[in-house]
Write a sequence for this structure.
């Protein structure tokens, strides 16, 4: 801890709960051991000005500075980690007359932290200060595996080999099926070769010398993702799969490949500075005869194997001589295998896939590195790296946030629109949230069910029919909106939100470990967070009543403010307004706003376009939907747009973790292909749907 704190009292339990496993213990040991047992009554009338604060990050430490507030006896400090629902009390700083007070926390883990402060005098506390954010990002790309090995997904120090060595010939065997496994290997998504910048520069020197001797280099493999090595390990354990034995290990039984070191848990290739290559004769235009083939398991592959012709041996020695001369060391078991002697990452194994998204053209590498810092692709951790939608949104963000480029989008025009049901939130379990809410209001609410009209009861029973059959009765959209408006007539918005909050506690029908208020798609929450990190404004444009959406989103993991939530509408009036038109009624200080009981519009299909024009006033550049009800919105966003634009459509093809509908998903895939939208596969693109602790009930 740094200077200028006379007395700090810390509620250790709350601190540990908020900053779980964040190294807080080292701070707590320095604080006074007297716990805080009485929290100031923050509901007392406020007569102390709220303080102004600032945060400064230094490595893994955060220092809070509090500017002196008039009449304050001290300051109460609250904090939370990103994702936590509520702030917790973490400490108290007493006023000592100095202009500024400081409060430092050390040894924090990587993550985003929010801090806010109240000033107090006696039992009276001020309003909260404005929350300040601190991002600890010591080394965000590196993690440690279960075996203690350092793993990284950071591709910023890698280059495409053919950008540095344009004459190199590529035959990336693990992208093809002609390899010792017999299948394309995990992580090889394009037939490309990557190396660290240092290894690529050394290989350029090798290539230049060999060209003077009449040769080009031919590359079989370079950087190898750790997931590919895991693929090899899993294959080695399956002793029944010997499809490629006659080509790659005819003299060995498969069960000895791992014990004898031909297959290992970690490969030097994954450190990014190892390459497998051979020579290509520019005169004969043929691969040079090395007396053995690439990836042959056996003594024949040893560089110093002598039971080959003199010419074959000389070819091996030529390759070895030039590689060693320019800083590479050979492997004694494989004539084609070389590793840069001074490799930049001797103890780090990389995990990113081999595709053009992960490593950009080396001519733009410095600009790309700078740009990648602002893109924050690491947020999308619940998406598979191979997901085309993830690759598309990351590449899009790299392009449109690069100042000076033709594709750059000004911050004020970075607007994204999302549908709700089936896009951000569970669509039907067994019905839409707003349909279930209406049925509860009319058929189960003791305060209302006896007052419900015959029309309302019919609509509620139609909801039950939908629950059973999955088929929507005729005119259901308008009838449902009309019944919602009439059955909640007279509620203020806040009363409505409270009503929804209670109903959100209802357990999900098809899931254990989740309530209706928690059924948001975790990977899509990350998309929203990813967009916010890149200065987007996010709107929800839903067919559900906008106040129901606001109530559902309130206090949830989906952090979209009320002013950015658009939905179907009903009338709003003052309680005493009666039939008086709004142009003739004057709101007075005894009034409040309540629902008028009349349905106005269902916000679906073309209506989504008109409401975007009316309420946003600018054409969005990103659209996310899941059904034909969203197709008009998608087309509006991507048609004649001044800026680069994309539309994404979720396809509900997961029947194991979600209430998937394969036929609907297939229809959506077809529409995506027809209109150029980007499909999102719940089944294949997401590592989870609802997060840990949630499981679908067995049927």
């Amino acid at each position: 801890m740094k200077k200028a704190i006379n007395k700090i009292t810390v509620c250790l339990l709350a601190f540990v709960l908020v900053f779980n496993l964040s190294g807080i213990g080292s701070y707590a040991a320095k604080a006074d051991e007297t716990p805080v047992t009485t929290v100031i009554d923050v509901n007392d009338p406020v007569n102390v000005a709220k303080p102004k604060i600032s945060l400064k990050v230094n490595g893994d430490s955060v220092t809070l500075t509090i500017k002196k507030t008039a009449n304050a006896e001290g300051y109460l400090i609250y904090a939370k980690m990103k994702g936590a629902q509520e702030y917790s009390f973490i400490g108290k700083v007493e006023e000592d007359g100095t202009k500024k007070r400081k409060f430092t926390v050390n040894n924090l883990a990587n993550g985003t932290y929010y801090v806010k402060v109240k000033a107090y005098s006696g039992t009276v506390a001020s309003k909260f200060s404005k929350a300040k954010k601190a991002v600890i990002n010591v080394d965000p790309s590196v993690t440690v595996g279960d075996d203690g090995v350092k793993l990284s997904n950071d591709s910023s120090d890698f280059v495409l080999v053919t950008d540095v060595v344009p004459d190199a010939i590529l035959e990336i065997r693990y992208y093809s099926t002609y390899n010792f496994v017999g299948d394309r290997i995990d992580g090889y998504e394009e037939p490309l070769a990557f190396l660290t910048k240092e290894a690529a520069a050394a290989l350029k020197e090798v290539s230049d010398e060999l060209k003077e001797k009449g040769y080009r280099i031919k590359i079989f493999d370079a950087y190898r993702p750790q997931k590919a090595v895991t693929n090899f390990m899993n294959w080695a354990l399956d002793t029944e799969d010997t499809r490629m034995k006659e080509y790659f290990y005819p003299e060995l039984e498969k069960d000895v490949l791992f014990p004898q070191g031909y297959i290992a848990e970690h490969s030097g290739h994954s450190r990014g500075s190892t390459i497998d290559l051979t020579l290509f004769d520019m005169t004969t235009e043929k691969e040079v005869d090395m007396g053995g083939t690439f990836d042959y398991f056996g003594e024949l592959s040893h560089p110093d194997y002598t039971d080959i012709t003199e010419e074959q041996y000389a070819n091996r020695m030529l390759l070895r001589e030039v590689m060693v001369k320019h800083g590479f060391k050979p492997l004694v078991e494989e004539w084609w295998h070389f590793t840069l002697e001074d490799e930049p990452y001797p103890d780090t194994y990389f995990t990113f896939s081999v595709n053009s998204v992960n490593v950009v053209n080396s001519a733009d590498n410095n600009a790309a590195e700078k740009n990648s810092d602002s893109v924050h692709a690491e947020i999308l951790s619940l998406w598979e790296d191979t997901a085309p939608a993830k690759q598309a949104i990351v590449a899009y963000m790299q392009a449109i946030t690069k100042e000076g480029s033709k594709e750059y989008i000004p911050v004020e025009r970075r607007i994204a629109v999302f549908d709700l049901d089936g896009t951000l939130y569970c669509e039907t379990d067994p019905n839409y949230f707003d349909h279930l809410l209406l049925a509860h209001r009319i058929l189960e609410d003791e305060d209302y069910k006896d007052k419900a009209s015959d029309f309302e009861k019919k609509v509620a029973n139609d909801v039950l029919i939908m629950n059973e059959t999955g088929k929507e009765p005729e005119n259901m959209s308008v009838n449902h909106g009309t019944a919602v408006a009439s059955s909640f007539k007279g509620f203020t918005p806040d009363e409505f939100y409270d009503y929804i909050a209670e109903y959100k506690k209802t357990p999900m029908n098809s899931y254990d470990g989740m309530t209706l208020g928690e059924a948001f798609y975790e990977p899509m929450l990350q998309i929203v967070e990813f967009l916010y990190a890149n200065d987007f404004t996010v709107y929800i444009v839903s067919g559900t009543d906008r106040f129901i959406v606001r109530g559902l989103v309130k206090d949830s993991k989906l952090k979209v403010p009320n002013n950015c939530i658009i939905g179907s509408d009903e009338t709003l009036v003052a309680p005493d307004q009666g039939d008086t038109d709004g142009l003739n009624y004057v709101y007075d200080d005894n009034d409040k706003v309540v629902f008028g009981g009349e349905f106005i519009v269902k916000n679906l299909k073309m209506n989504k376009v008109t409401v975007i024009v009316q309420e946003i006033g600018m054409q969005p550049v990103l659209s996310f939907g899941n059904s034909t009800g969203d197709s008009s919105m998608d087309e509006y966003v991507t048609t004649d747009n001044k800026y680069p634009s994309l539309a994404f459509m979720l396809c509900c093809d997961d029947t194991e973790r979600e209430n998937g509908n394969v036929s609907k998903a297939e229809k959506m895939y077809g529409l995506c292909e027809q209109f150029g939208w980007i499909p999102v596969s719940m089944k294949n693109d997401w590592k989870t749907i609802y997060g840990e602790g949630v499981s679908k009930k067995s049927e």
